[in-house]
Design brief:
Length: 204
């Protein structure tokens, strides 16, 4: 009997390396006996690197280089990653992901959000644009609209529970995988993650 192990994947739609890790993470369910659980996690980019206009030259160079690496990885796979013009909040996109997940449509929704955001074809902070993606993915956007209309009632507590779980798992950035209590941070650590899964005897 196939009893898949839970593989946590902490993600953010506004993280280029999460976008890179997204499809390979899904592929792990085919190559290994795991169930990937996608958990939203926010990282305060302003606190880490400073606001765009206020970054030191060192931080400007570091962020520019990180995007260069992301675009190199993306080019190898035919993906497009265009650096955002500003720092965006993924909060509403997370709410949309929760609603899509509840309706069994997390991936049709997330695929569209990732691709369009990184092509600069989605205003990720616009609830109307996200509701349109939900409809396009086949989901009923009414619960999302309720989430946005009264965040404190349902949406924020649900998102805060995800962040609290991340704290318990000692997650500090995205993308982060957690399996058997061990963390793997970053798209470029996925090879080590696969070795861990193999060592656990989870290869199909």
């Amino acid at each position: 009997m196939d009893n898949p192990a839970e593989l946590k994947f902490y993600f953010a739609y506004t993280s280029p390396f999460t976008y890179l890790a997204y499809e390979p993470a899904r592929a792990l369910e085919r190559s290994h006996r795991v169930r990937v659980r996608f958990i939203p996690h926010g990282v305060n980019i302003r606190r880490v690197y400073g606001d765009t206009a206020e970054r030191t030259r060192r931080d400007q160079l570091k962020v520019r280089y990180l995007y260069l690496d992301a675009r190199r990885f993306a080019a190898e796979r035919g993906l497009t990653i265009l650096p955002p013009k500003k720092i965006y909040s993924a909060r509403f996109a997370f709410y949309g992901g929760m609603v899509a997940e509840d309706q069994g449509l997390f991936h049709p929704y997330s695929e569209r959000v990732f691709e369009r955001f990184w092509k600069r074809a989605l205003e990720v902070e616009d609830p109307a644009a996200l509701a349109a993606i939900l409809r396009e993915a086949g989901a009923d956007p009414a619960p999302f609209e309720r989430y946005v209309g009264n965040e404190e009632l349902e949406a924020k507590p649900r998102l805060k529970a995800c962040f609290a779980e991340a704290d318990r798992d000692h997650v500090f950035g995205v993308p982060t995988f957690v399996i058997d209590g061990e963390l793997f941070w970053g798209y470029d650590r996925m090879e080590w993650l696969v070795r861990k899964l193999d060592a656990m005897g989870l290869r199909r």
